[in-house]
Amino acid sequence: MNQRVLDNRYELQELIGGGGMADVYKARDVLLDRTVAVKILHEQFKRDTEFIQKFHREAQAAAKLSHPNIVNIYDVGVMGDDHYIVMEYVPGSTLKDQIKQEGHLSVADALHVARDIASALAHAHANNLVHCDIKPHNILMMPDGSAKVADFGIARAVTESTMTYTGNVVGSVHYFSPEQAKGTMITPRSDVYALGVVMYEMLTGQLPFTGETPVSIAMKHLQEQPRSVRQLEPSIPPVVEAIVARAMQKDANMRPSSSELVQDISQAQQMLGGFNAGAGAVDPYATQVLPRMQEPVRPVRQERYREPDYEEDGDEEKSIFKSKKFIAGLVMVLLMGFFVGAFMSFGKFWSTAEVEVPDVTGKQMTLAKQILEDKRLRVKVDEEFSADVPAGMVISQNPEAGAKVKEERLVTIKVSKGGENIEMPDVRGLKKADAIAKIEKMGLKVGRVSERTSDEEEAGTVIASDPRAGTRVTKGETVDLVISKGKKAKKSSGVPDVTGLPLESAQKALTSAGFKVGSVERKASKQAAGTVISQSPGGGAEALEGESIHLVVAEAGKVEDEDKGSKNKKKDSGKQETAAPKPDEAAKSR
């Protein structure tokens, strides 16, 4: 790279990483003669004045943090259009790299790393700073096995400024807290939830929630419970399982604070005995639960079903299901269900307050939900594929914008999952109309159609497509086609006269004129051996381009033999004349 120096102090040496917000360079601090890491914001952030202000404010606040498990921030500056932050340079890999390499960490190592991260969060939270983007990619691993948290303050500035940049939700949706996915207030306990997800991944090598789209994953954070870590790894002690489950509570108030989490992890390490980062297997039968933790709510045990008593009435028995009381109760239940459904759909019957439904079409899902909920409306999210609307954006809403509804009315928003991925069909060899029909039936669009000659495909059939057959494409994507014009039309022209030329020269003359040399016949001739005696078609005749021209060439040694044959014929004819009888002799003989 070209050598760059920021503010005559930070000499950029090499690009060592990058992400959604910035590029990271290894650099040398010329003033203090030390290696540092310099993070320079991406172009799209530079034009946002509000974000830049928050970035500098949050980065300066993060620079005040001093903790062994936090990457130190040395300086924040701007040079020209480049807004940068100078940090401690930490050689080595990230926690994400380690999980990929090892599959998952041992319980001892996972607890050690989690305690380091929780300690860093506790220090930051005590200084009123929330990270907002805790994930293994932002955890740097030291050679001694300890962990350092990077990017404090930067993610916070982004989240406060806006929920999206270029249509993408800030942060990683796999580690989102429910309140982040919902677009509501982010608190220090949002970081605790993310750390719970990181612990889940460290212990099992798997993420608690996955899906085809960011929207579907965000909805799982809001609505679903993950499989417990012990279901995936039975060797994990129950006390560790409880820590992860408590950190990942949907309700932020049910989660521990970061400082409480440090205590929980430390107690778990003591319970498991003799903890150190390099320890071997821990006691898989440790079943103690931390005092502060609550036992999971167990379902109330119900009485076993007993057969109803029947009253004898002659030979018949009356079923309770046919009694008037049962039927009346059933009607009441149905009526209650109707009214509950009506309330859920249309809001509070007793409320006279009406609100106007805001327009959220075209907005990112979390932002749309926040706008609707701020109007005291409830939200239901449906997903569908859309080639025209980017993933995560609202396609439509019901009720529509501008409608007057009661508070707590349910508003359904349809959110795009992006275009559906399909395999590009093979349309080569099909007629143009058939190819277009097949492409459109697959949910694709026909774009540019061009033509070119082909010796293999007849006119009107498809020669090629772009994208090619077999590649993965998105429904709604445009497909370009190339159609055969048939074989290239041949032109007629005059055949050059090559008689009298040596064979090699004649061949060159014919091919240069666009003809082929056909059969070559050898014949005796008085002409020099190897020269063309005649040709067919003859010189000057009209012939199609590429047509074959047949040649007759003089054969060596045949001219002399032909002359001797002529002389012998003359001698034989002379002898015959001498031997003929004279007229007088013929008469005497008679």
Spatial separation of the terminal alpha carbons: 126 Å
Gross morphology is: elongated
Number of helices in the DSSP assignment: 17
- Beta-strand proportion: 15-25%
The CATH homologous superfamily of the largest domain is called Transferase(Phosphotransferase) domain 1
Please give the number of β-strands.
Answer: 27
Transmembrane segments: 326-346
Protein name: non-specific serine/threonine protein kinase
GO molecular function, one term: ATP binding
Pfam family, one: PASTA
Summarize the topology.
Elements: E1 4-6, E2 10-18, E3 22-29, E4 34-41, H1 43-46, H2 49-63, E5 73-79, E6 82-88, H3 95-102, H4 107-126, E7 139-141, E8 147-149, H5 154-161, E9 164-165, E10 168-169, H6 178-182, H7 188-204, H8 214-223, H9 229-232, H10 238-247, H11 258-272, E11 312-313, E12 316-317, H12 324-346, E13 354-356, H13 365-374, E14 378-384, E15 394-398, E16 404-406, E17 410-416, E18 421-423, H14 432-441, E19 445-452, E20 462-466, E21 472-474, E22 478-484, E23 492-494, H15 503-512, E24 516-523, E25 532-536, E26 542-544, E27 548-554, H16 558-578, H17 583-589
Parallel strand pairs: 14-17, 19-22, 24-27
Antiparallel strand pairs: 1-2, 2-3, 3-4, 4-6, 5-6, 7-8, 9-10, 11-12, 13-16, 15-17, 18-21, 20-22, 23-26, 25-27
